[in-house]
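Hi there,

I know you've been waiting on this one. I reran it after we fixed the sequence typo, so this is the corrected version. Both the input and the resulting structure follow.
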Amino acid sequence: MGKKQLAIATAILVGIVAATSSLWAGLQDFTLKNRTGYQINYLYVSPQSSNQWGPDRLGSSQVVANGADAFITINGYPDNVCMFDIKAVDSDGDSYRKVANLCQVYDVTFTIGDLVSQ
């Protein structure tokens, strides 16, 4: 294979990988943006139809610093489940809540305005 053919084959392969990389992300996956002024220690996500929070999506070893972003993977729901309740808990134990259509929204930003009064 000549240099020109190799370059064309490489360009095609790169294009295919780039085009399919969005398929690797689940429909309800999103980027969490922490703009609360506090570190987020826990993140819970559940369909609006559920009366229980799912597991902590950050796990035991991850936190999201103020000003930082984290990619959140949501598995186990059919593509037609779109409306989710999202709860973040900061380092002081304060809770923040949002409702999001995760089939249409790719970024979920928490601010101090999302603080739930205790």
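Quick highlight: The chain has one domain: 25-114.

Best,
R. S.
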